């Protein structure tokens, strides 16, 4: 890629799901990993495969890779008659016995089959909508379920899974089209065929992304193993850098947090290498959460680059230590869309353009795809024109590769196809990856003494700490970590036991539980995630052979809010 006068654009698509498994039993509590796999991870690969000139960065959380592999193996074994699927929702697709009509189990399973975007995924298919409308009656007239039969639940289950299938396979696979056209009265053969399709799609994900990386179309990067907020593991007080008045947990620090952060990086690299055959050069630290100390750890782990949100940059530009450099940037009209270095750490840091990323996540779903793409490219051209420095300028769009698309028609098929097509032909903009940008352009990073610790969400850690429920979660985690340390110091565990304890601890340290705690989140999601957090902690106590505290059997957060997109996404800027 020559410096041809075009401004470089990087799309970083973040693929992440927490571990929904009970690692003691292997059972999955929630189906979101395989559902996003067959809908989003498949389509995101297929769009890039369809246009060989496209380039992007794709981030996989290591525990997501492990779950995808686990699902693929379970489905293959089940279809071969050699094993049970340990996800109740997926298993119900081919279960020979389903709950009796009129029972709570029947109603509960039927409601689970409606956990899909109503407008884009249910109303799109008249046969699915017909079934969904009947389930809606259960809320006020529960007796209705008594007059249904098993076939009702079977058809609803098939449609639920069909609605989650990625758009490009839906358009190209005659088997999927035949099932859709059949509409109802699905047989066991139909159900097993659909499970086979799901298995194929899930199993294809790792190899497809690896092939794209080997072809140079994408750069694969990673997050720390179980997606913890690394700066908070290192120092809970780092939250005060962007929020001086924040109320912190009763625990003053997370025990041995720096070494835990190192563990997540080491295990993340090991898992990444296992699935993709090479070491990653870049790290999207969980939720783009960075601090000076985090950057040092990333450099020690031999990463070349990291990224976060531009609110972190703006907070850093206001820091007293950086005032001289900030004034120079302003007086020389230097573009902020550049590589940076902080705290004398030779690690390139890139900043997400929150405005551009949020347009995709929160606005364009209701626009015609041509208008949406045109608007986005106009913003990019304005940035490129204002910069006038194609050697050092890179425009970064960083966002989930999964959660936004269900709000678009047809899983954003038209938007993504048009976006990639127009960018590959654009006279002023050119797609690249971060490593390619660094290798071929050798940009001169803007150096600053200090990065104000924060995440891509508002430039703070307010999504994970400071709320009473979030702080309660941290106190519970810190208590558990102290018990683990005490148990390990007093008795010997086998290597297998130690590995399981470390992994269970890692799952408890993940960011997702704290994300969902709080009154502003929807009650159903809060209930799901706070339950799983407590379940993970209970398992941790069991593994160290200690009784779990009574408070782990008490609900710590109930939610009740109605945030945009159901709370699965946040906007980068607070206002």
**SS elements, strand count:** 10
Helical residues, percent: 40-55%
The value of Rg in angstroms is 24 Å
Largest sheet: 5 strands, parallel
Strand content: 5-15%
CATH class of the largest domain: Alpha Beta
Summarize the entry for a quick read.
The protein has 575 residues and is α/β, with parallel strands linked by helices. Helix content is 50%, strand content 9%. The chain has two domains: 1-16 and 223-575, Alpha-Beta Barrel (7-stranded beta/alpha barrel); 72-206, no CATH class.
Write the layout of secondary structure elements.
Layout: E1 7-15, H1 32-50, E2 56-60, H2 62-79, H3 88-91, H4 104-112, H5 118-122, H6 126-137, H7 150-163, H8 167-172, H9 174-182, H10 188-214, E3 218-222, H11 230-234, H12 257-276, E4 282-283, H13 292-300, E5 305-309, H14 310-317, H15 323-331, E6 340-342, E7 345-352, H16 354-362, H17 369-387, E8 394-400, H18 413-424, E9 429-431, H19 434-441, E10 446-448, H20 468-490, H21 495-508, H22 512-516, H23 523-543
Parallel strand pairs: 1-2, 1-8, 1-9, 2-3, 4-5, 5-7, 6-10
Antiparallel strand pairs: 6-7
Word description of this protein:
Strands 1, 2, 3, 8 and 9 form a five-stranded parallel beta sheet that branches. Helix content is 50%, strand content 9%. The protein is an alpha/beta fold and 575 residues long. It has two domains: 369 residues, 7-stranded beta/alpha barrel; 135 residues, no CATH class. The longest helix has 27 residues.
